[in-house]
Amino acid sequence: MSVFSERLIQIRKSRGISQSALAKEIGVSPRTYQDYEYGTREPQVSIFVRIADFYDVSLDYLVGRSEKRER
Q: pLDDT of 11-66, one tens digit each?
């Protein structure tokens, strides 16, 4: 599992959000979002940005390039 997948799961669970609710929020199908968490698919850049904006974290944090969540 990638750092990105692990961080998605960690942040989503810490915020108490379902996979379906987050998928709807960022404009992808629930199955597509599940694939991001399982590490079988990576989102397009525009989706990366939507996820980072939704959680108010940096892109570097999402992909494991930084431990700092702040943008």
A: 999 999 999 999 999 999 999 999 999 999 999 999 999 999 999 999 999 988 87
Contact (CB, 8 A) for 20 and 30: yes
Residues near 5 by Cβ (< 8 Å), separated by ≥ 6?
Answer: 36, 37, 38, 39
Helices 45-55 + 3-15 axis angle, to 10: 40
Calpha distance 61→68 (Å, rounded): 6
Q: From CA 71, how far away is CA 38, in angstroms rounded? A: 25
Q: At what angle do helices 19-26 and 30-38 cross, to 10 degrees?
A: 110
Tell me the C-alpha distance between 47 and 63, whole Å: 13
| Spatial separation of the C-alpha atoms in residues 4 and 10, rounded to whole Å | 10
